[in-house]
Amino acid sequence: MTSKIFHRSLTASYPSAIGGQGCYVVTGDGRQILDGSSGAAVSCLGHGNPEVTDAIVAQAQAMSFAHTSFFTSDPAEELAKVMMEKSDGAFCRMMLLCSGSEAVESALKLARQYHVYRGQPQRIKIIGRMHSYHGNTLGALAAGNNPPRRKTYAPILSPSFHHVSRCFHAADGPDLEEQVYEDQLIAEFEAKFHELGPETIAAVIVEPVVGATLGSVPATSTYLPRLKELCHRHGALIIFDEVMCGMGRVGTYHAWQHEKLGGVAPDLQTIGKGLGAGYQPISAVLIGQGVYDTFQAGADGAQAFLSGHTYQGHAIGCAAALAVARIVHRDQLLANVVRMGDLLETTLRQQLPPIFTERGGSIRGLGLFRTVDFGHLGDAFGAKAPLAAQVAAETLAQGAAVYTCSVAVDAILFAPPYIITRAEILTLVRAFLRALDVVLQQRG
Ligand code: PLP
Question: Is 90 exceeded by the pLDDT of residue 384?
């Protein structure tokens, strides 16, 4: 039967996912696919977790939906408390939403309104970075810089958004010491502030570890604290977009808490994906005290934030996210993220064929957010032809799903569920390496 769904691809045919257990997705044609990227770094608890589904059912039976213009709910209040506890005192409020893009839109609007309340309505500009991805709605698309996704819409994207270089030491400054490379990037930010007029900048938005476009590229070690200092010196806010890299994906609850990323919190932070672990669509903006105080002082109480979405704070989503957070904590899953992430990287390093390193291939990332970058391996057999999409398709045929990063790199992202076992890591690597071998043989 022809599908009546308007799929992203009009030509691909998609197998039906009919079930899931642990790290595996079950398809209608009887296959069990090892979820090597948790979809797009979403399903951090894997599939079919009975505690999460029980929490969803219990909440649905008790109270499914009550509009946030009139009501709050116990799971929403409890979830906000848990998030504050996990944030080292960095935030004092949480705004609930449904998707990462919605969270980014809201963070940008909060930043704008913060300045209006402070009597600086001229602060209308946002600075993002090349090859970052912040979502697909028009504001989020404007803030990010994922060229293929922006191209068609560029003429209708707001001219208030500007971009500076990405932070990708291994690709853009391999011959420079990290500190020298970082100095250049911070100087570029400073120059951009002055070019645009520092008094016109509302906020800077960055992914602490760039995900979808580049494949788990962490910021250099003092980049984030220095950027925050620069923003504050010029009166602008800093927003971390942790929709993909947050919620434990890199081994700490927030990516900025990782010792390699500087340990400094932003003014506003977006989270999503792993928050609901795919059991429910839920995202949020975490709000720092300074921003909250400004809203308290400047706003007309009843109409503090001039924004809102019908399904924000949905009680079933909050109940799911609360169950996810409790399981991650109780089962000490972040320790497993660190252990299995290290095993994944070590195994890949040991088993990738010599031609991989000879052609400039590399492995990067933190925790269970690890990327195999093929470097120039795709050029090895004549015409320049990226490998990632072909290898991902073949890996799927071999029984594992992995994520393709092909915007500005030729790379495969691994982001398996936090519950993955040693044996499953080895199965995942085996499927990937078999796939790479098949593709290289076809090309050779
Ligand atoms: N921000 C980042 C860093 C993302 O990786 C994504 C999605 O991949 C988004 C925002 C948008 O999230 P969503 O697809 O849930 O709207």
Answer: no
